[in-house]
Specification:
Elements: H1 2-11, E1 26-39, E2 42-56, E3 65-68
Bound molecules: zinc ion (ZN).
Length: 77
């Protein structure tokens, strides 16, 4: 579940801001994205397992904020 992964990454300070390299402090507007696939006359909704979130750095002197589907790229091990 992506929301839990994002929460854990932020709480564990593993979501890193690309600008100041400090841990991202918060996020907002989490949303699962669903791809609609046309199959003849039917429209099937297929869960693409993608999700979009707005990441907010929140550290002093850093105004980095990004709405992204590629939030996994900002998580470090
Ligand atoms: Zn930052």
């Amino acid at each position: 579940m992506s929301l839990q992964i994002i929460k854990d990454a932020i709480e564990g300070k593993k979501m890193i801001c690309p600008k100041c390299k400090k841990a991202v402090q918060k996020f907002e507007k989490f949303a699962e994205t669903i791809d609609a696939v046309r199959d003849g006359f039917n429209v099937q909704e297929i869960d693409s397992h993608a999700s979009r979130v707005t990441l907010i750095c929140g550290n002093d002197d850093c105004a980095w904020k990004e709405r992204t589907e590629y939030w996994e790229n900002y998580i470090v091990d």
